[in-house]
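Subject: Major facilitator superfamily (MFS) profile domain-containing protein

B.,
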Amino acid sequence: MTKPAVPLYLSEMAPAKIRGTVNQLFQLTTCIGILVANLINYKTDQIHPWGWRLSLGLAVVPATLMFIGGLFLPETPNSLVEQGKLEEAKSVLIKVRGTNNIEAEFQDLVEASEAARAVKNPFRNLLARRNRPQLVIGAIGLPAFQQLTGMNSILFYAPVMFQSLGFGGSASLISSTMTNAALVIAAIMSMYSADKFGRRFLLLEASVEMFCYMVVVGVTLAFKFGEGKELPKSLGLVLVILICLFVLAYGRSWGPMGWLVPSEIFPLETRSAGQSVVVCVNLFFTALIAQCFLVSLCHLKYGIFLLFAGLVFGMGCFVYFLLPETKQVPIEEVYLLWRQHWLWKRYVDDEQINR
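Prediction pasted inline below.
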């Protein structure tokens, strides 16, 4: 439930100027949680025979904190307006904005809510022509591409690289710890850069980086690894560095932006439905990659990295041509961006623009 709810909640609560930074807290805390879990697993792995029970039982701690914290969270102003609780919505908006000058934003919420009430079936409305940009970019494109970056192939090969450096049986835990530490660092970088440089810049710059890393890793493995060849230690060190750089690029771009951008671009009348589709598409491609990766690896071998390099190139083109910049645009005014886009303005009708 946290995947669809938290990014949406943060985007609706945050001021437009720092929405990217606030939304990245979801990615940061998730990565920190995974890193802490890996460190706990690394320690409890040395406790026989009941270490795994301790590791599993400690999961109660964050679950309890989440439950208690959730009891004190207020509803978002958007949700309160949609429920007809206008005074409470205005009170929450004043509190989270820190100013009484919220009339313009509050009026936008009321108008968006009135448009949302006119929609009887939000999922069917999501397929409407005027919502084509959100459907293609937010509901399908970004969540699918987030899983098609090749991150899984990198994480799969990471233990092999660490074993070549002499880590032995603990290579899997060591590699997981290092890659998740890189994700935490990347999430912090993303927090400070999302609202400064913009979403498009982060996605495009990282796509170039990830493409280069995938090509280098694929070509290196083609000539130096496989068919009985042992990976030289020095080369293994280079590949480990490349893996960490790839994880850093992913962790500050396609990782967090795959949740941030969809949470920003849906209008109120399709926001919940759209975010649900985002999660469904993301999990579908996660399962698809998990089922197909090993088979593809056996057939393509090093070519799997070149395949992902091609996908990353296509993803970069997708962002360059189709995704407008949403940095510091109020969430209820993002729909105006489609009117200025060379392609999407053909799909946005007058009703959507003048609502």
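The CA atoms of residues 17 and 328 lie 5 Å apart.

T.
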